[in-house]
Automatic annotation (TrEMBL):
Molecular function via GO: hydrolase activity, acting on ester bonds
Tree of life domain: Eukaryota
Hydrolase keyword on record: yes
Entry keyword Hydrolase: yes
A Gene Ontology biological process term: lipid catabolic process
Protein name: GDSL esterase/lipase At5g03610-like
Secretion signal span: 1-25
Record family assignment: Belongs to the 'GDSL' lipolytic enzyme family.
Entry keyword set: Hydrolase, Lipid degradation, Lipid metabolism, Signal
Name of encoding gene: LOC111471216
Length: 351
């Protein structure tokens, strides 16, 4: 997600049964590693973007973003590290270089992989003029085709894929109808499945996709309750998406030897942190978990915004480490650490 985006519309939950189309025969390719993965390729949005957006396009390039890490705004939508950083650290890798940074530098293939994610983007096009996930994969395919990453390197890699809800926010912005939401959810999840299979076809051995988080618990929709209550209707929409994603991934793994596709259950990970007001695994404590650290002084402003005189138009908490959420839709570094800590155990078996 991007901080200017709205979250799911407050719509009633559709009760429906969906059968995703069945593919053709199984692939007989072994997607197990011979050794620990050595590269990470990242696709998606602001939950995993580490700096692909330029300064003129995003608040993530303004203070107070980046005050915890690296100390100045880096393009991460947080006070510090995001999911990509913790994922890479788990793999004992440095966070991979951003695609825009690499293209500007003109160097050879980066050692640790590459990050193609752009904040604000979706599976399909959104209101943000940045590459959607299909285009991001096009970038990756081009680098593979031009031997920037040879097959051996790609074969020892993991992909992290983050579709965190911008498609649904854009659907709301376009005044999408309740009647049209059901087929739209289906189309989003089906396209995610196409994207995952395409990344795998380019030689990536393991692909981790983020499920949708409890978007009804984000500061943006909980502001109306003074950050005290999640919106259960909005969360129900995320559950529908996650159910369909689970079915799609099960289908992909059934058709692919080695089960290369893994879902990160972000929904239950974050919801557990909220309910427990922290995470024992991460030794994190969030007394008011729904309240963001950085928030605009009114609905017209967001974290990092200033008026024409340069005056700050946001409030900032004293200790970002004590907050689960950084701004209206993004976790803090500590929030991401707590979330990843609860998910990491699911990686050990697969990797």
């Amino acid at each position: 997600m991007e901080s200017r985006k709205t979250v799911f519309p407050l719509l009633s939950l559709f009760v429906f049964s969906l059968l995703l189309g069945r593919g053709s025969g199984r692939h007989h390719v072994d997607y197990r590693f011979n050794s620990w993965p050595t590269k990470l390729f990242v696709f998606g949005d602001s939950y995993v973007d580490t700096g692909n957006i330029k300064a003129t396009n995003s608040s993530s390039r303004n203070l107070p973003y980046g005050i915890t890490f690296p100390g100045v705004p880096s393009g991460r939508f947080s006070d510090g590290r995001v999911m990509t950083d913790f994922f890479a650290n788990y793999l004992e890798l440095k966070s991979p270089e951003t695609f825009i940074g690499w293209r500007k530098g003109g160097r050879k293939g980066p050692k640790y992989g590459m990050n193609f994610a752009f904040g604000g983007t979706g599976v399909f096009d959104t209101s943000f003029p940045f590459p959607n996930m299909t285009t991001q994969i096009d970038f990756f395919q081009g680098l593979v085709a031009n031997n920037i990453f040879d097959p051996k390197h790609v074969g020892s890699s993991v992909a992290l894929v983050s579709p965190s809800g911008n498609d649904y926010s854009f659907y709301q912005e376009r005044n999408g109808s309740m009647e049209g939401l059901q087929p739209f959810i289906i189309s989003v999840v089906n396209q995610i499945a196409v994207n995952l299979k395409r990344i795998q076809s380019l030689g990536v051995k393991k692909i981790v996709v983020l499920g949708l988080g409890p978007v009804g618990c984000l500061p943006q929709p909980t502001a109306n309750s003074s950050f005290k209550h999640c919106n259960s209707t909005t969360n129900s929409m995320a559950k529908v998406h996650n159910l369909l994603l689970k079915q799609a991934v099960e289908k992909l793994n059934k058709d692919t030897k080695g089960s290369p596709f893994i879902i990160f259950d972000v929904y239950n990970a974050i919801l557990s942190i909220i309910r427990n007001k922290g995470s024992p695994k991460a030794r994190a404590r969030f007394v008011t978990p729904l309240k963001p650290c950085c928030f605009g002084v009114s609905s017209e402003f967001s974290c990092g915004s200033v008026d024409e005189k340069g005056n700050k138009m946001y409030t900032l908490c004293k200790r970002p480490k004590s907050a689960l959420f950084w701004d209206s839709v993004h976790p803090t570094q500590q929030g991401w650490f707590a979330t990843f800590s609860s998910l990491a155990s699911s990686l050990k078996h697969h990797l």
